[in-house]
Design a protein that fits this description.
11 helices, mainly alpha
């Protein structure tokens, strides 16, 4: 068994890691409410001034609109392709099935700069001008992985007997999907969509190579930090990006965690009932 000293050391180590990860984010959030444009500590006066400045900045508004639009479109593409791929890999047995599964997951493991350069080279080779749609394609390459992983994990935990029972009762095709498949996968699809949106919304590396002259919100932040003249406004915008990222991730975690607990509880209850 672990000694008391080991437990204390592990807890301290855990606290140190959390501080290392989140103290810089907390400092940026605090500076977002700093009335002065001088980044000094302690903060003398707190205000919402820079949120108003950012809201009335046309560059920020245009970048925000482009980020939201690209993230929504990439999420839709990821939902369609990711869920279709997960059904194909789960339901059918064919040569190269595991290779296809590996290839589908690979983009999330590749560094963003490699994906971005590869996409930029491809678009240039076939003569496609960089635009909103090239951003969507770039984001969809890794958003598909998120949806695929969520859906196929749920399918693997779903008993085939439910589909067989529906067919025995005379249901086919669309009826089975509407009454059995979709209700079981709904939380996985929603969680996958929320995670894909969050990942797409704050993506900067792939966007840099696929956006051309357009600025998404992360690219605007990157450029403003480089110029160094709008740091206070950047802090306010970063706070908005953090909120826009954390909220869908939190909801997705609750959806997948809650449904997993419920299914486990039902399964345990069924096993205990069957053993009586």
């Amino acid at each position: 068994m672990e000694g008391r000293g080991t437990r204390i050391a592990l807890r301290l180590w855990g606290v140190a890691v959390m501080l290392f990860l989140y103290v810089p984010i907390a400092v940026v959030i605090l500076y977002a409410f700093n009335r002065s444009n001088i980044q000094s500590w302690p903060i003398a006066n707190y205000s919402l001034k820079w949120f108003s400045v950012a809201f009335h900045d046309p560059d920020v508004r245009n970048s925000l609109f482009l980020s939201v639009k690209a993230a929504l479109l990439a999420t839709v593409v990821a939902l369609i392709l990711g869920s279709a791929a997960s059904f194909a890999v789960h339901r059918f047995r064919f040569f190269g099935r595991e290779v296809i599964s590996f290839v589908l997951v690979l983009p999330i493991a590749l560094p963003g700069i490699i994906t971005g350069i590869a996409l930029a080279s491809f678009f240039n080779f076939i003569g496609i001008q960089l635009s909103l749609w090239t951003i969507v394609v770039g984001h969809a390459t890794f958003c598909i992985v998120i949806v695929y992983n969520n859906v196929i994990a749920r399918l693997r935990r779903t008993s085939p007997s439910m589909f067989e029972a529906a067919m025995d009762l005379g249901a086919h095709g669309w009826t089975i999907f509407r009454t059995v498949t979709f209700p079981m996968l709904s939380t996985a699809l929603i969680a996958g969509a929320l995670l894909a949106f969050a990942l797409s919304f704050d993506e900067v590396v792939v966007t840099f190579f696929t956006a051309g002259a357009q600025n998404t919100l992360p690219l605007w932040i990157f450029g403003a930090i480089g110029r160094g003249q709008q740091l206070s406004e950047v802090n306010a915008v970063v706070f908005v990006v953090i909120v826009a990222t954390v909220i869908p991730i939190t909801i997705a975690a609750r959806l997948t965690g809650g449904s997993g607990i419920a299914r486990t509880g039902r399964a345990d209850g069924a096993e205990r009932g069957g053993g009586m």
